[in-house]
Amino acid sequence: MDAVPALEEPLKKVLGPATAKVMAEHLGLHTVGDLLHHYPRRYEERGQLTHLADLPMDEHVTVVAQVADARLHTFASAKAPRGKGQRLEVTITDGSGRLQLVFFGAGVHKPHKELLPGTRAMFAGKVSVFNRRLQLAHPAYELLHGDAEETVETWAGALIPIYPATTKLESWKIGKALQTVLPSAQEAVDPLPESLRAGRGLATLPEALLKIHRPHTKADIEDARARLKWDEAFVLQVALARRRHADAQLPAVARRPKPDGLLAAFDDRLPFTLTEGQQKVSAEIFTDLATEHPMHRLLQGEVGSGKTMVALRAMLAVVDAGGQAAMLAPTEVLAQQHHRSVTEMMGELAEGGMLGGAETATKVVLLTGSMGAAARRHALLDLATGEAGIVIGTHALIEDKVKFHDLGLVVVDEQHRFGVEQRDALRGKGKQPPHLLVMTATPIPRTVAMTVFGDLETSVLDQLPAGRSPIASHVVPAADKPHFLARAWERVREEVANGHQAYVVCPRIGDEEDDPKKAGRKKPPEGEAEKRPPLAVLDIAEQLASGPLRGLRVEVLHGRMQPDDKDAVMRRFAAGEADVLVATTVIEVGVNVPNATAMVIMDADRFGVSQLHQLRGRVGRGSAPGLCLLVTEMPEASAARQRLNAVAATLDGFELSRIDLEQRREGDVLGQAQSGTRSSLRMLAVIDDEEIIAEAREEAAAVVSADPDLARLPALRTALDALLDEEREQYLEKG
């Protein structure tokens, strides 16, 4: 193992403190090994130019192009009142499109001498819009003459690697730094078992690192990528396989419902039949609950596909078998809503120990942080004695004071909202590990489920229950066509006139200015347009109530309101006592008001694809059709606008989650498993590499069942430790 330290050498020693500091702060790279695993995003060929036509807005890009023309303008400004201000405009082209570069002030002299028509160079900068045209302000550039010796040395070979870069450190500087550390690649320890590597004809790790950074041919790049993808997929799947293996060793109490118990009584009183999907998923869950190892199941279903019904039947089955079930919701609004809908669905079956309660009934209690002391004491007593079979609550359920008589099942709603520690603390409250059911309305493609939730079995609900209405979605380009926005507010008035209600969603609350941390916003760099702050609930509510929605009953809901006030607003809206609810994303999950038919999302480009899909699912929940309007000021060519067009074009959450993933790259696939800016997936594309992930999963399962502690594979163990820094280890540990 003496060879490892070369890759652990701090970059400070190798590259000098200044470069190392920028790499650590902006790219999360600290050691020689980190830098070797900072792979090129793509490659440029000398004879071929980038597509300027496809540049993404607001992103830091590197392009290779030729100067078409350069013009120096003088102008008067506050700094140069006598018309002595200078602006250099350079137009570059690559055959697919043209792009304007702009330099100001003293920054014009060097490029004015060097960027002559016909010159080819690499340019790096942030794409912005000025006068409705794409531009790079003050880009860094590197001339590609091929005559200066150093340039020839550095850019040897026909393929120029383009690295993920930052304003502080251009791609070619990262390339030069890699040149310095590349010899250390020979000492990289190979995590793949030799039999697996040779059996699949994969390159060794040192060879793959050399080929990815200094390829001579496109075949080199393919070889390197194939190998490095396998590393990432395999090491991650080994981590998950070890987690599954450990879970399979744990004991649990098998919970089987009584033939004539609470579940049977509940099913008898249902006014509708379950969808085929609900029946199939329920059967999978009941099979798991009947085994003596804890169930670990992920239930994913579209908004409104009836997940709550499936979860409730699982909870009733556990109560039938003498246990208790806890449902953990991410917000008080949602916990209260679940409590209301569960007690309504159960009727007298939720009135255990009360007058008029059915013989098989149990108690359903609510436990949240804002409850009064007496109600809280009562709820805690019911849990400790076992009087309450079902408890629904927020993270208040996790506190030490909360004791269960016999916790048999934990249902976690909206998995992505909970920290690992919270789920773990709740699971620790059973005498033996309780069964676990995780629910999410964010559809997850199969590959992501295998990658992120690889330690959970997955069930999918993809049918909508009868009676759900279609939702029409449209993008409203407020900057290009202001009259479209005026029409949006007319549509809201029409819906209200027809007896319906509407939501207006904003990205921000609007009282943050009082927060000293948020004051003192940074000014944008010279030559870049200032981005206005996101629209706020409090401002928009006021503008609407006194403007386009004057005369309608407009209410406000956001996360910083007192819990009682939030609940009161929600109750009024559900009862039809308010026409329009202006809210933040607190309404994103679980809010159920069938009479709400319209939603206007302001600054829709500030939300992610999955989040927009979630929000949209709040309308069209009754028999009247739903309408969702996505308001944006982004220009038509921008990536943000394309994202909104995609949301408007389909209601299929799985399709949208693929688009979302393709656009976000793999950066945050591991959710909370991310630490800082480093993603553990640098090469693997979870959408495209489904086959590799599935094969790696099989190989990993075989390796772990033969050698759970990896005693015979020390190099794999080392790679696992590197992938699972402490934070990520805990994330997988606690599922």
Report what the structure shows.
Helix 17 runs parallel beside helix 24. The protein is α/β, with parallel strands linked by helices and 735 residues long. The C terminus is likely disordered. The protein has a seven-stranded parallel β-sheet, with helices on both faces. It contains 26 helices and 21 strands.
Q: N-to-C terminal Cα separation, in Å?
A: 32 Å
What is the count of β-strands? 21
Strand order of the largest sheet: 11-12-10-13-14-9-15
Question: What is the makeup of the main sheet?
Answer: 7 strands, parallel
Rg, Å, rounded: 29 Å
The helical percent reads 25-40%
Weakly predicted, low-confidence segments: 148-157, 514-530, 665-679, 729-735
Mean pLDDT over all positions? 81
By DSSP (H or I, 4+ residues per run), the number of helices equals 26
- Protein structure class: alpha/beta
What is the 3D shape? globular
Proportion of residues in extended strands = 15-25%
Descriptive labels:
alpha/beta, single chain, disordered C terminus, 735 residues, six-stranded parallel sheet, 18% strand, seven-stranded parallel sheet
Give the helices and strands, then pairings.
Elements: H1 5-8, H2 11-15, H3 17-27, H4 32-36, E1 42-45, E2 60-75, E3 85-93, E4 98-104, H5 109-114, E5 120-130, E6 133-137, E7 140-143, H6 149-154, E8 159-162, H7 171-181, H8 194-199, H9 205-213, H10 218-249, H11 262-269, H12 276-289, E9 296-301, H13 307-320, E10 324-328, H14 332-346, E11 363-367, H15 373-385, E12 388-393, E13 407-413, H16 420-427, E14 435-440, H17 446-452, E15 457-461, E16 471-477, H18 482-497, E17 501-505, H19 537-546, E18 554-557, H20 563-574, E19 580-583, E20 596-601, H21 609-616, E21 626-632, H22 639-649, H23 653-664, H24 690-706, H25 714-723, H26 726-734
Parallel strand pairs: 4-6, 9-14, 9-15, 10-12, 10-13, 11-12, 13-14, 16-21, 17-19, 17-20, 18-19, 20-21
Antiparallel strand pairs: 1-8, 2-3, 2-5, 3-4, 5-6, 5-7
